[in-house]
Design a protein that fits this description.
Length: about 150
């Protein structure tokens, strides 16, 4: 639990609040009414912003909303270029691993004594190899459809 002291605007924890009043016996749960009598407010969890792939949310103080209550304030923060590159590299590795599994699972179709539509399987396997050339790679992937049989 976080508590905002009205006099200073400072935000502290429930334990810190109790330590400020060592001679007071508080109930286990500090109520809004009790805190009000000590000129303090509960800080409620605030809404978290919607973020893009290259953003995260971070805490930025507290804010009083129109209902009069205080809430934790969060903002969207852009990732650094290094973090963006690392995220893309991680996603690319996952896509390549999936591609490699699909290729390995279809290796049997290339054996000489297998009766399948070889041309369809060759095209499918080439589409898998070309997955990294798709415009949305590594974020947006359209996986090719495996041929029947």
């Amino acid at each position: 639990m976080e508590i905002r002291l009205r006099s200073a605007g400072e935000v502290i924890t429930g334990d810190e609040f109790r330590a400020l009043h060592p001679t007071t016996s508080f109930p286990p749960q500090l109520s809004v009414e009790l805190l009000d009598s000590f000129d303090a407010d509960v800080v409620f969890e605030g809404p978290q912003p919607t973020t893009t792939r290259y953003q995260f949310f971070a805490r930025q103080g507290v804010i009083q909303m129109s209902d009069g209550n205080w809430y934790r304030n969060y903002v969207a923060v852009d990732m650094s270029d290094e973090a963006k590159a690392a995220l893309d590299a991680q996603e690319a590795a996952l896509v390549r691993a999936e591609r490699n599994q699909r290729l390995a699972a279809s290796d049997w179709t290339q054996l000489a004594d297998v009766s399948v539509d070889k041309a369809a399987w060759v095209a499918y396997r080439q589409d898998l190899r070309d997955i990294t050339k798709q415009p949305g790679f590594p974020v947006t992937i359209i996986w090719p459809t495996q041929p029947a049989g």
